Amino acid sequence: MIVVMADKATETEIKRVLTKLENAGFQLHVSQGVERTIIGAIGDKTRLNDLSLEAMAGVEKVVPILQPYKLVSRAYMDNPTVVKVGDVEIGGDSIQIMAGPCAVESREQLLESAEIVRRAGATMLRGGAFKPRTSPYSFQGLEEEGLKLLAEAREKTGLRVVTEVMDTKTLDLVAEYADMLQIGARNMQNFFLLREVAKAGKPILLKRGPSNTIEEWLLAAEYILAEGNRDVVLCERGVRTFENYTRNTLDLTAVPVVKYLSHLPVIVDPSHAIGKWRFVEPMARAAVAAGADGLLIEVHPHPEEALCDGPQSLTPDNFFKLMQNLKAIAGVMNRQMGG
Ligand code: PEP
Ligand code: MN
After folding, report:
1. What is the pLDDT of residue 257?
2. Mean of per-residue pLDDT scores for the chain
């Protein structure tokens, strides 16, 4: 990092900063200009916040040179991480599609959805048993009954199951049934939950918070890796902007940026980003063209009857069409569709 001293910083103030950095084990390079002194400090930047340098007299600003995260960074590991969910590899040559209804609603609805998405070429089944709904009066999910249905659908189709875990109270229960644990957008910065979920021994799908920067998202992933769980897949699902025609604004820039900064796989959820079924396919194609390792897509056998997110759910026919059209884009990217 670089510590820029104020132009009026006194000798004593500069000395105090140097001593503090030295005691914290930093190597120092001091450049004494005509106007001001600049200190280059090399060492463990994770200690930076603890030092409160910016609160010291005579310090104008502190400029970190490296990223605040470590384990998730390309600098730490240059080779892309491939996360395995059973035999499904996310982050390798194949594009993996996770699809299914927003929520598990009934046995018939889930088994029908699972069969549809499997036939169309998805490799994983999505579906919420615990739903983070904006209104407490909306359908909240079938809870354990929903998890049992997901497990039954896995038995019947061979699809791996990804489902959301909302709190530590239900973590063990969800982990008993799920192949991959989803941290929803609203919980991206629930650091206590992140730590606990990391310890469940399952791969994790970490959604980006609707108002979070890429750096905050990577730091959330860092919490999981810091607990010793390296199996994290990031999921861009749209962020809040001034635009309100769509549900959120799909930030596709996140795909190449995250791939540049991190070795972790990144997938895209166009359904929650856009919120309208007719725009899901073009953005799904764009996501694959941008380099996404997979997609999370909501599909419902009868979207008009869905208890949750019907307007953004694809009909079976539209999902089949999407899967066909994705093959061509995957080919251009020198990749193939998983499954
Ligand atoms: C979901 O995928 O079911 C969901 C609730 O999405 P998000 O957390 O991105 O809103
Ligand atoms: Mn949904």
Report:
1. 98
2. 96
Q: Indicate whether residue 275 lines ligand 1 (CB < 6 A).
A: no
Residue 245 is given by DSSP the state S
Residues whose beta carbons lie less than 5 angstroms from ion ligand 2: 102, 309
In this prediction the pTM is 0.91
Q: How many CB atoms lie within 10 A of CB 189?
A: 16
Length of the chain measured in residues: 339
Amino acid at 79: N
* Backbone φ and ψ of 298, nearest 5°: -85, 125
Phi–psi pair at 60, nearest 5 degrees = -85, -55
Under 8 Å between Cβ of 28 and 43: no
Asked if residues 314 and 299 have their Cβ atoms less than 8 Å apart, the reply is: yes
Residue corresponding to tokens 């994705």: 326
- Ligand 1 atom nearest residue 131's Cα: 5
User: 92-131 b/e with 16+ CB inside 10 Å = b?
Assistant: bebbbbbbbbbbbbeeebbbbbbbbbbebbbbbbbbbbbb
Using a 6 Å cutoff on CB, does residue 237 contact ligand 1? yes
Cα 331 to middle of ligand 1, angstroms: 29
